[in-house]
Amino acid sequence: MEFSAAEREQIAGELRSALARSGLTQDAFAHLIGTSRSRLSAYLNARTMPSAALYQRILRTAAGLASARRHGWMTPDRTAEEVDEALRSGDEDWAFKLVVQARDQLRAMLERNDPASDAWLLRSRPISDPRYDALLAALIQHEFDQSDHPLRPEWAEDPHLETTWTQTNLRRGEEWTRMHTPDWLARRGIFIADRDLMTA
After folding, report:
1. pTM
2. Adjacent-strand bridge partners of 173
3. Which of 66, 80, 85, 101 has the least C-beta neighbours within 10 A?
4. Nearest alpha-carbon partner for 47 in 36, 39, 55
């Protein structure tokens, strides 16, 4: 399909506005949406037209990031950054709370039909510790599965642990913890009682 010069510039202008709203650098935004910096530059300068699917992804992702930033809500990459910082300082309790907090915030986004939930569809980096990465993925996928959002974050489908991880409830013990772990979490190789997944 051929585009007129006016149409090409209109689309490029919308993409430049989207990039500005995202709050990310061109490099970071290209990485997040799954393209190269040079390819994104070609879109922004109307040298190449993106596919309809990529065009929608760019607009949706930028709007999600802008809304998340406006509300001070977590995004996948921000969560990974803050969890990694907590783990580097040796504070696993805070790392766990950050993951649960991110889940709680996503739940609020989905309940309000806020576009910030679209910021959770893509990510450019995992959490360095596979345990916390798999936990975050499980929690995020579960929230989307419980919602009526039309899309699902593909990145959240994969992380599973080869060696099981049990966060034992100190009062009830390991056996009780395993018995009270939700099935959708146990399938990831993670055992945490449902009551311990409440707001931390």
Report:
1. 0.94
2. 169
3. 85
4. 39
